[in-house]
Specification:
The structure is a single chain. The chain is mainly α and 195 residues long. It has helices spanning 7-10, 15-30, 35-46, 53-60, 64-77, 99-133, 138-171, 177-194; strands spanning 51-52, 80-83, 92-95. The chain has two domains: 7-97, Winged helix-like DNA-binding domain superfamily/Winged helix DNA-binding domain (Arc Repressor Mutant, subunit A, Orthogonal Bundle); 100-194, no CATH class. It has a three-stranded antiparallel beta sheet with strand order 1-3-2. A hairpin with an 8-residue loop joins strand 2 and strand 3 (92-95). Helix 2 (15-30) packs antiparallel against helix 3 (35-46), helix 3 (35-46) packs across helix 5 and helix 4 (53-60) packs across helix 5. It is elongated, with a radius of gyration of 25 Å. 14% of the residues are buried.
Length: 195
């Protein structure tokens, strides 16, 4: 006897667990993840002890393949970990319970990667525009200047986003002052464009 719950008790969710797992699944889907990632994580998070893949399969009525793929993804993101249960040969899983640690890791990897990619592409766009800035036709030069100024503005936003994300992940705080300056700068550009 390992002190774990009997199978009947282990495989039925309380109404609160159903509500939370469905909510987290919906939120994960909204953020671009698979719904089952949220559901599995929530069940593990609310469980009083680690659960096996079979427990999750039975509890959430998912296929063994779906549970296996979902656990692999959750392990890769670092939001679930494998744990050893004395006297058991199968793998058991527990959720990361430090919410900010989990969220900040996802932000740093996913959003940080997208922001870094955006900066790289915008820098490439600026390089590509250099040849157009020396065009003989005045219309082409004017178009290149307009695009250059707008790409520089987008690059500024991307770099600001990178700075804010880095600050958020490392300190759990964000200084919104640079955002207000960005808003004021764009309002000034709109006013001069209308003249």
């Amino acid at each position: 006897m390992t002190g774990r719950a009997e199978p009947e008790a282990r495989h039925s969710l309380w109404p609160s667990e159903v509500l939370v797992s469905e909510l987290v699944g919906r939120l994960m889907e909204f953020w671009g993840f698979k719904r089952n990632m949220g559901r599995v994580w929530a069940v593990l998070y609310l469980a009083p002890h680690p659960l096996s893949a079979q427990d999750l399969k039975d509890t959430l009525q998912l296929s063994a393949g779906a549970v296996s793929m979902t656990l692999s993804e959750l392990l890769r993101w670092g939001v679930v970990r494998r744990v050893w249960v004395p006297g058991e040969r199968r793998d058991y899983y527990a959720a990361e319970v430090q919410i900010w640690k989990m969220v900040s890791r996802v932000f740093a990897e996913r959003e940080g990667g997208e922001i870094r990619h955006a900066i790289e592409v915008l820098e490439q766009a600026l390089s590509a525009l250099e040849s157009q800035l020396g065009a003989e036709e005045e219309e082409a030069r004017a178009r290149a200047e307009l695009q250059r100024s707008r790409v520089v503005a987008l690059l500024g936003v991307a770099r600001l986003g990178e700075q804010l994300l880095r600050s958020l992940v490392s300190t759990a705080q964000v200084n919104a002052e640079p955002l207000s300056r960005l808003e004021l700068a764009s309002e000034g550009e709109e006013a001069s464009a209308e003249r």
